[in-house]
């Protein structure tokens, strides 16, 4: 068995490579906000005015409560208290519980959560939507 550099695996995988923070206007949280791909480091490094939280599958833990908590923890480490808007694409039980249980901390961190109760109807199709102004 060869133990060359190509065969070594690090004990910790990081979804976001090391480096300075990146500032964006709008970020779609990857993989339906599943905690396998998004952690505190993501929110410390990927800083956005708007985050879209998709996912409506409680069995797959999407969206993940851990991801929502990671947003709070990561945002608390930013050097500014810029406003952040969280845009859920579905009205999930996880989202509602997180919103209610952490509302005071959200306010302290200048995080606003948009309601996701708007519906767009086009021809024979309807789907949830919300308006984003940048």
From TrEMBL:
InterPro entries: MAP1. One of its GO terms (molecular function) is actin binding. GO terms for cellular component: cytosol; dendrite; microtubule; microtubule associated complex; neuronal cell body; synapse. GO terms for biological process: axonogenesis; dendrite development; microtubule cytoskeleton organization; regulation of microtubule depolymerization. It comes from the Eukaryota. This is MAP1B protein. The gene is Map1b_1.
């Amino acid at each position: 068995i060869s133990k060359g550099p190509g065969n070594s695996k690090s004990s910790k995988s990081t979804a976001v490579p090391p480096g300075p923070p990146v500032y964006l206007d709008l970020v779609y949280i990857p993989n339906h906000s599943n905690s396998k791909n998004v952690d505190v480091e993501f929110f410390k490094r990927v800083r956005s005015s708007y985050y879209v939280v998709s996912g409506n599958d409680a069995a797959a833990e999407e969206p993940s409560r851990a991801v929502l908590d990671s947003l709070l923890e990561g945002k608390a480490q930013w050097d500014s208290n810029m406003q952040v808007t969280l845009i859920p694409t579905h009205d999930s039980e996880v989202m509602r519980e997180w919103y209610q249980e952490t509302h005071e901390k959200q306010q302290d961190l200048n995080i606003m959560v948009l309601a996701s109760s708007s519906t767009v109807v086009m021809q024979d199709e309807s789907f949830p939507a919300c308006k984003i102004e940048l």
